[in-house]
Fold this protein.
Amino acid sequence: MEDNTFKYNWYAIRVKSRSEKKVFFDLEEQKIEAYLPMQRKLRQWSDRKKWVEMPLISGYVFVYISRKEYESVLKIYNVVSYIYFEGKAAIIREEDINLLKRMLGQVEVAIEITAEQFRPGQKVEIVAGPLLGVIGELIDFKGKDKVALRIPPLGYTVLLEAPGKNLRSYSPS
């Protein structure tokens, strides 16, 4: 039987509302590698507008841990639970974390996260621009063509704007 005590994986943890940044800093303080995807958004108050850094996926923080740190993550204040899939803490693929990092690194690409489930549509591949090679479903959302990329264990869909000229039909070879 394989010993996974020291094998590291990415996991998603659910945190209490509006405590993502605090949990992220608490994880860092305990020397636990964490990732909190952040995005700048323009917020409107009654008297002014202001750019603020907000979590891309509210209520979630990603941790890169081994089984050894599993329990210590749950002991951090404001951590609710791991995200489970088929009765086990869902392992998030490193490729999905890297894709989020890559998308957030592109300032000219608008990104949205939605819990809305979309009907299966035409698969497309981005053939130009900063997200070259990314494959997703083409949907019509708020009047603009966007590519939907699913992150299965989370049940969320990543929406990003991609001009039609940068897309082509995708069929696996």
